[in-house]
Amino acid sequence: MKLITAVVKPHRLDEIKEALQAFGVQGLTVTEASGYGRQRGHTEVYRGAEYTVDLVPKVRIEVLVEDEDADDLVDVVVKAARTGKIGDGKVWSVPVETAVRVRTGERGPDAL
Amino acid sequence: MNGANTAFVLISAALVMLMTPGLAFFYGGMVRVKSALNMLMMSFISLGVVSLLWVLFGYSLTFGDDIGGGLLGNLDHIGFKGIEPTSLWGEKPDAIPVLAFALFQLMFAVITPALISGAVADRVKFGAWALFITLWTTVVYFPVAHWVWQADGWLFKKEVIDFAGGTAVHINAGAAGLAVALVLGKRIGFKKDPMRPHNLPLVMLGSGLLWFGWFGFNAGSALAANETAANMAFNTQVATGVAMLGWLAYERIRHGAFTTLGAASGAVAGLVAITPSGAAVNAWGAIVIGLVAGVVCSWAVSLKYKLGYDDSLDVVGVHLVGGVIGTLLVGVLATDGVGGATQLGKQALGAFTVLLYSFVVSWILAKLIDVTIGFRASEDEELGGIDQAFHAETAYDFSAVGGSARSTVPAATGASAPQKPHNKKVDA
User: This protein's superkingdom (chain A) (predicted)?
Assistant: First the structure.
């Protein structure tokens, strides 16, 4: 199993959800996140005092998949998340040792 | 008694009352989340403290007959002695009940110390603050209001024009703010940590309430529903609108954006500046006053970074500077024959004596509190947020995680929590 994590622009969330559903993904977890990449943040002005806001709003999407689907799914997420502008985010996958469905106790691929 | 004037002054008093919660929102939105409630409370507490002081001795010290030298009222009306519902203020046929006048003036005494709180945001003990406004209102506000507004007051007799409080309210509060900020020192992290306003819509709401209430503040100061009140109300609107434009234009040129905080701040700067002057000028004078106040105050708020004092919410830049602008410009722009170099000299005398008196006495009072009971919150309280430290509350519940209920209210007899049914015999 693999865990695919995507940290992307919040307004791409709906596109990504639809693409994942079309691919056949059953469930996902979304967390509000903040961070920056190479573009850094933006500047805000309050009574002449300028603040650099480094951490910009992002969403973090996590999906568990079987090994053979992982690469395809990363591509699906990247395609749906891309706007071509700076700050589009990152997607990565990592191996997962165990997954358990809490309701039934099923383990491994059966738990997905 | 004049019914029209009485109605007008009573309504104006209610309008001015609304300015204090308005100020609370204006300031409250500008601080960080962790001290939003304390900022509201520092204004709100003034409604309690000063209302009590006003009855005990405030009204008497301010509007009692002079004790000599034009410095302070006497104690004839202490505890509102001798004031009946039928007592009148002013000359017939314009007279209004003393209670209407006293209520209107009470609202001025309430908002003035509340204005100071912006200079010390985020870092004072709440009890020490309540003590400070008790002492400050007694030793600074009541005498200064007597100097400027009571017919026996020495600045009144010098013909200093302060129609609705440029000196007694704004310069007075601004100078006090500077003094207290200097005694307390800077917030932890000043110029290093981000101290962004946590809620600009709240700031806009507050400035809107201030603008609305200020019609009562300014026009009501005529104490009559007459031409002076109308002129003042009109000029209040024009100067405020133009000051907002002035502040925004300055910001756009200097910082590249028309900010919401700038619009709200510019409006307040215009309101401050037109306060002493609005009854003596025409609409064009109001435009000039508004424009100068908007641009100069917008520049002045950056002084704290250059000079290194931490006036958290710019009480100096907006109220002191705006008050001085409005007070001095009366000497330049007055249309009813009082303008000119002589009047400018009188205005400067009024502005700078009030500034000096307020600064020196406020500094002493703040220092006195600091060395006795301690004025400043501890480092832990300041870093953790003074809302929790002094009010046992937080302004917003952002997370459902954390915290469990522990009621301190004993259950009422006969209304205890539902019992488990297993011991009860249930009839079939």
Answer: Bacteria
